[in-house]
Amino acid sequence: MADNTSEKGSHPTEDQKKAMYDNLSPEQKQKQTYTEWVKDAYSNQYENWMPWIEDKYLAWFGTDNKASYATK
């Protein structure tokens, strides 16, 4: 997966994102524009990272964990 990411981290560059979109099948491209595809990719990444971010925030700045915080 190193070919789909920049050297500085695990985030693909804009050119790499466009190349990944260009490699989609014509059927997939008809379903989504490039912008819609990027929005979906961002949403998926947000859903993957947000629970970890919430846990870290509560650990650093709160006295509760996520489960006890949600029940308040």
Description of the molecule:
- This protein has 4 helices and no strands.
- It has 72 residues and is mainly alpha-helical.
- The chain is elongated, with a radius of gyration of 17 Å.
- The N and C termini lie far apart (42 Å).
Distance between the termini: 42 Å
Number of helices: 4
Low-confidence segments, ≥5 residues, pLDDT <50? 1-7
The Cα radius of gyration reads 17 Å
User: Judging from the principal axes of the Cα atoms, what is the shape?
Assistant: elongated
Q: Helix amount, in percent?
A: 55-70%
The biggest sheet amounts to:
none
Based on helices, strands and strand pairing, what is the structural class? mainly alpha
- Order of helical and strand elements: HHHH
Look at the structure and give the mean pLDDT. Answer: 77
Number of strands: 0
- Strand-residue fraction? under 5%
